[in-house]
Design a protein that fits this description.
alpha+beta, six-stranded antiparallel β-sheet, two-stranded antiparallel sheet
Length: 128
Amino acid sequence: MKVKKNDTVLVITGKDAGKTAKVLTALPQENKVIVDGINLQKKHKKARSAQDVSGIQTQAGPIDASNVMVVCPVCNKATRVAYQVEGDKKARICKKCGAVLDATKEAKEVKKATKRKTKKAEATAEEK
C-alpha cells in the first residue's frame, strides 16, 4: 500500500472529496485508511456502570486507499507515489518533484540525539 500512517492525503472521491487531512491508521490487509475528520460516523455508547455516561460519539471511519492521494510535503501537490531503491533501502518518491516522501529513521535518530544533548547541556548548566 502506498499510503502510510502520518501521511497528509487529499480525498479525491466520495462525500468528502477535496478535503486534505492526516492519516491516523493504515489497514493494509483491507486496503483502507482512517483519515482524521473524513467519513465521520456516529457511534452510540451505552453506560456500562453508574459512573459512565452514555451518549453519541463521532469517529472517523475507514475509506478505501484508492480514494486518496498522498500530498507531497515539498511541493504541496497531490501526487502518485513512485519507488526508488538506494542500496538495500526502498524509498517512496513524489512523481511530480522527485522529493522523498518517507521520514527516514536516521533523521528521527538525529533529532533524538540532539534532544539528549540539549537536555544534558541544560542539566550541566543548572549544576554550575
